[in-house]
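Run: sequence + L-homoserine -> complex structure.
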Amino acid sequence: MKPVKVGICGLGTVGGGTFNVLQRNAAEIARRAGRRIQIEQIGMRRPNPACDTKGMHVTADVFEVATNPEIDIVIELIGGYDVAYKLVMTAIENGKHVVTANKALIAVHGNEIFAAAQEKNVMVAFEASVAGGIPIIKALREGLSANKINWLAGIINGTGNFIMTEMREKGRDFQDVLAEAQALGYAEADPTFDVEGIDAAHKLTILASIAYGIPLQFDKAYTEGISRITAEDVKYAEELGYRIKHLGISRRTAQGIELRVHPTMVPQQALIANVNGVMNAVLVDGDAVGQTLYYGPGAGAEPTASAVIADVVDVVRTLTADRDNRVPHLAFQPGELSDAEVLPVDQIESGYYLRIMAVERPGVLAHITRILGDKGINIEAITQKQTEEAQVPVILLTQSVKEEKMNQAIREIEALPDIVGEVVRIRVEHLGQ
Ligand code: HSE
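>> structure
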């Protein structure tokens, strides 16, 4: 059979990994796909020293790849929204299938891209966009298709997890660890995407759409980064039997869908609390299967290439199928997407860790607990740390409560005369533990 011809756009970290794995494992991949996969053209602005492209058809204009009549599948690995968006739409317009690792593009423009692809009867595959090498999209979209998904929670940004782990285990400095993640090719071009939770929110948006069959709604995702986590809170969390992880959490409730990325305290014994370094993990709760956990490298050249190439193989296997006989982009048939509302963050429910700086005076704790009690907020633990200062940290753990109630309580606590500064709040999740 004739080989399938692919064009790679972008020969950076992931593009380079894809190029090398496609060549190294060509025979094994062809045995799976049923046809040889030939790199017909490469669109790149800069050569990658890790790739030997001698004798290859190389262009600096990625649009040449998208319009090249020889090419069946365009592999978009340039990242970002602008050029990547135009490139993918041009490729679809020209009847090409697309494989992409671009979570930002899918989370923000996916609805439009999938509609164009349906129209043109081509596939857009994006396994590598979430959790690097972990086949989580395949698992959710196909392996769990019998289930009603109740919730999912994941460590879906390797850079952020690497930073938190190194800071906690080795006491390293935030900037120093971030610089290492950049050198290793894990971090986004703009690393605030990693640290502020934007990258994780892109990925969570995609996972939630596939889990519940809702359109992509990145603009409704709540994001809170890790840059304000202090060593003090890490220590107090450990003392209480918890660990702070930067989680993406999505839950289906009777009121709507929760979609949120924020630092989260999880029980130390939870498997996800022990996912360290650049590793990612996604925990999924389905009504039939119960909980399943997917763990693996969430970034890096070849782990991400593994997902990109798996998508290429999937596309090759269904090249001759029509759109009604392929796995739908968002797991549910396009006409069957639900209009369930994505809830604003004050409507979510969660447990809370509060750190309150209080003047050491009789009655202060009573005032705090009265405010919480009046709002029906159950306290699970309360402790006052001893210091030499006139002000002492009061640490509180509460049971699950609606965030809007907790916001009111925090405002009232902050207004007490013996409370100094802002109350620090970290959400607590037990994740079925
Ligand atoms: N910057 C991302 C991360 C790369 O650190 O997880 C993989 O999407």
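>> summary
Residues 132, 157-159, 186-188, 194, 199, 298-299 surround L-homoserine (CB under 6 Å). DSSP finds 14 helices and 16 strands in the chain.
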